[in-house]
Design a protein that fits this description.
Blueprint (H helix, E strand, L loop, with lengths): L8 E7 L3 H9 L1 H7 L3 E5 L17 E5 L6 E9 L4 E6 L3 E10 L2 E9 L5 H28 L17
Helix pairs in contact: 1-2
Length: 164
């Protein structure tokens, strides 16, 4: 694996849904909770909590929690253009870019995570772990927005599983 890039990765998925619907799936707390998180809290620059129905903006901060994981991820929204691009910090100082492009049957969602440290713990937990996690959650995004089926495991008696 000497030519393996430990510092970044990208994943793409086609979703038969309009680009704005998918942008909102990332940008509105109540929507991102449908397919990705158990709880999404956003705060404006003055640290006022935003409504679950209010779209994020650049400069907002977030606190995210997942089903069956006792971890709170904190970061900053660095870009949010209202239509097709969101960028945020994640897993420390990593950057995640989400771009949404139309195609004839819906949209292509591209997620890239960059600035991944190259120490052994980051290689395992961030590069490999986040790649695996984002891959599942992008499939779940497709499932929820194309057919309404949430694939996440929410049963504490069934862990660890592929879908949590």
């Amino acid at each position: 694996m000497k030519n393996f890039d430990w510092t970044q990765f990208s994943r793409k998925i086609a979703v038969q849904t309009e680009p704005q619907t998918l942008y909102n799936a990332w940008a509105i707390p109540s929507e991102i909770e449908k397919w990705f998180l158990s709880d999404a809290q956003y705060y404006d620059a003055s640290r006022n909590q935003k409504s679950k129905a209010t779209a994020i903006e650049a400069g907002d901060t977030y606190e995210w929690q997942w089903h069956l994981w006792n971890v709170t991820e904190k970061g900053t929204i660095t870009k949010a253009n209202g239509s097709d691009h969101i960028q945020f910090t994640f897993a420390g100082n990593c950057h995640v870019d989400v771009s949404i492009a139309p195609y004839d049957k819906g949209s292509i969602v591209t997620l890239s995570q960059t600035n991944i440290p190259t120490d052994e713990k980051s290689k395992q937990n961030i590069r490999l772990g986040c790649d695996r996690g984002w891959s599942f959650y992008l499939v779940n995004l497709k499932s929820v927005y194309e057919g309404g089926l949430d694939l996440r495991n929410k049963d504490a008696d069934l862990q660890p599983m592929l879908n949590n």
